[in-house]
Design brief:
mainly alpha, 2 domains, 84% helix
C-alpha cells in the first residue's frame, strides 16, 4: 500500500503539476480554465432551467475572477519593464512598435482591473457609474493589447517566412555553412513559426471577450465561456509543456 502511495505521490505527472502551479502564470491559467468553464456551464444550466445549480457555478466564476485579479496586482510593473526593454531591442521596427504597444496596453488593462478588484473588496469606494467607466477603460486596454499582439504576430510570421525562404535558396548554402547548421536553423525557424501561429489562434479567439464587453459584438455567455475555456486550455498546455521541459 505504501509503495502504491509513493508511486502516486512521486509520479512525474504529479511533480510536473506542482512545478506548473508553483508559478503565478501556471496557477492563473488553471484558474482561468475553470473560470470560463464555469461561465459556460452556468449559461447552459440557466437555459435548461436549473437556476440554483447555475448560481453555484456563477459564484465559482466570480470567486476565481477575483482571485486572478489579486494574483495579477504586480503585473502592470512587469509589463512596463517589458515595454522598456522592447525600446532597446534591435528587431524590425514594426515588431518593436507593436511589442511596446502590447505591453503598455496590458499594463493599462491590469492597472484598471486592479481598481475594479479593490472596489469589489471594499478597499476602494466607487459609484456604480465610476466602476462601469473604469471597467470600460480596462476592456479598451485589453482589446488594444490583443490587437497589438495580432498585428505583431502577422509581422513576425511574415519575417520568419521570408527567413525560411531565404534559407532554402541556393545562395544560403554558402552563407550559412554546412547542412547540419542549416538544418538546425531551419528547425529553429519552424518552431518559432509554430509558436507564433499557436498564439495567433489564441488571440483570434480571445479578442471577442473584450469586444463583447465593449458592445462591439453581442455574443452570449455560452459562446464566450466556451471560447475562454478553449484558449485557457491552449495556454495551459503551453505552460504544462514548459513545466515538463528538461533543463
Amino acid at each position: 500500500m505504501a509503495s502504491i502511495a509513493s508511486q502516486v505521490i512521486l509520479h512525474p505527472a504529479a511533480s510536473q503539476t506542482l512545478k506548473l502551479w508553483s508559478s503565478t502564470v501556471g496557477r492563473d491559467k488553471t484558474y482561468r480554465t475553470v473560470q470560463y468553464f464555469s461561465r459556460f456551464l452556468a449559461w447552459y444550466l440557466i437555459n435548461r432551467g436549473y437556476k440554483e445549480r447555475a448560481a453555484k457555478w456563477n459564484a465559482l466564476k466570480s470567486a476565481l475572477g477575483s482571485g486572478r485579479k489579486l494574483m495579477r496586482l504586480g503585473k502592470p510593473l512587469e509589463h512596463l519593464q517589458a515595454a522598456l526593454r522592447a525600446t532597446h531591442s534591435s528587431g524590425p521596427t514594426g515588431e518593436q512598435i507593436t511589442s511596446i504597444g502590447r505591453q503598455l496596453a496590458y499594463a493599462g488593462y491590469l492597472t484598471y482591473d486592479a481598481l475594479i478588484w479593490a472596489a469589489s473588496v471594499k478597499v476602494l469606494t466607487l459609484t456604480k457609474d465610476r466602476k462601469d467607466q473604469i471597467g470600460k477603460i480596462s476592456n479598451r486596454f485589453w482589446l488594444a493589447g490583443i490587437v497589438f499582439n495580432l498585428v505583431h504576430a502577422l509581422l513576425k510570421a511574415g519575417r520568419l517566412a521570408d527567413e525560411v525562404k531565404a534559407l532554402r535558396s541556393p545562395a544560403a548554402s554558402e552563407k550559412v555553412g554546412d547542412d547540419a547548421e542549416r538544418n538546425a536553423k531551419y528547425h529553429s525557424l519552424q518552431a518559432a513559426r509554430s509558436a507564433v501561429r499557436y498564439q495567433f489562434i489564441i488571440d483570434s479567439l480571445d479578442v471577442w471577450l473584450p469586444a463583447t464587453n465593449l458592445g462591439f459584438v453581442n455574443f452570449n455567455d455560452g459562446l464566450l465561456g466556451f471560447t475562454g475555456t478553449i484558449t485557457s486550455l491552449m495556454a495551459l498546455r503551453s505552460q504544462w509543456r514548459a513545466a515538463g521541459a528538461k533543463k
